[in-house]
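Per reviewer request, we include the raw input and output of the structure prediction for the construct analysed in the revised manuscript.
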Amino acid sequence: MTPSIPVTTSRLSEHLPLLDLLPENHPIAWVRGGDGLVGWGVFATTTVSGPNRFADARHWWQEQLSKMQINDSVHANGTGPILFTSFSFSPEDASVLVIPEVVVGLRNGKSWVTWIGDSPQPVLPQIAPAFPANSITWHKEFDEDNQWKTRVSHAVSRIQGGEVEKVVLAREINVSAQSAIDPRKVLHKLSLEYPSTWNFAISNLVGATPELLMRLTHGMITSRVLAGTISKTGNDERDLALAASLARSSKDLEEHEYAVRSVADAIAPFCKSTNVPESPFVLHLANVMHLATDVTGALVETLNKVDSFSVLEKLHPSAAVCGTPTEKASALIDEIEGLARGRYAGPVGWIDASGDGELGIALRCGQIQGNSIRLYAGCGIVAGSDPERELVESQAKFAPMKSALS
């Protein structure tokens, strides 16, 4: 097939706040600390599902690329045509793929615009959008917290019985509003309160994840693993003491080790060398602290066709969102969790024409449907988990989205 659809990338002389550029319809975003990518308009979109969804997504992306005549004068990570992806946690649910008509990027002081089609370079908006107030109602089922603690207790007993080593359980909150919920308003609030997280919006899944599942660029893989959490008090002295206790907590260190090991084992076949720090560091966010480890690896040059899809297929689901061993933890989730995760806890982010990309785990997020949104939070359960502590942790993990909606 002769490429017939022009795709042009040009450098921009001005650096406009990315989130201010988003339109009301179908806003797409992947932004951290002001840098990242935003997109709008839909050139092409599809859904994939089933056990081969990552391979099917690659095939569809390559089909779309074969139609394109790419003129990229910037040649940076994230330029050219971009595929935004939001994969489901479970293979049975639908994963969403979107190629925007226009993408604007900003990284390290350099900005650019990519557009698809024969039209001239798009004119970018100069005025930040205004968001009217929207009354929010929180819906809570009778005895919901006790039901959650019962599930945690059940999981702990199964772990202590030797069935699994770790399992991650999720819960949900349903929220309704007086008028349609605007993902742009949610993104703006999240970016202000959680600038060190990756703020994302794809097909009405919106959130601020602190966990980078994988960054693949120029033959290097990076993954930020988070597992082990403690709430912050707002008192600096007290929070420093809590951070120290988190770093010494045998329960949290055990949970973290399972997650790190699952990521390191998943990327090892692709890499000639990997770097796994011996001890985690404590990542401070606005409301919580996490044990965190940055795992890195250098790809084997002789391996062919190693791209983001290849790595995702091995990485997901990691122990940070599923458990250990994976198959047994997944079966236990299906048995006792009691909800459909959809795209919560699935890979979310972007992939470029070379197969490089940056994808996080869809955490601290919600799925918007008109005037309602469903929020999700999850906790890693190990043998030493306490149901009351896990309840408090889950409530802390709802805080970013609660604040963004309030």
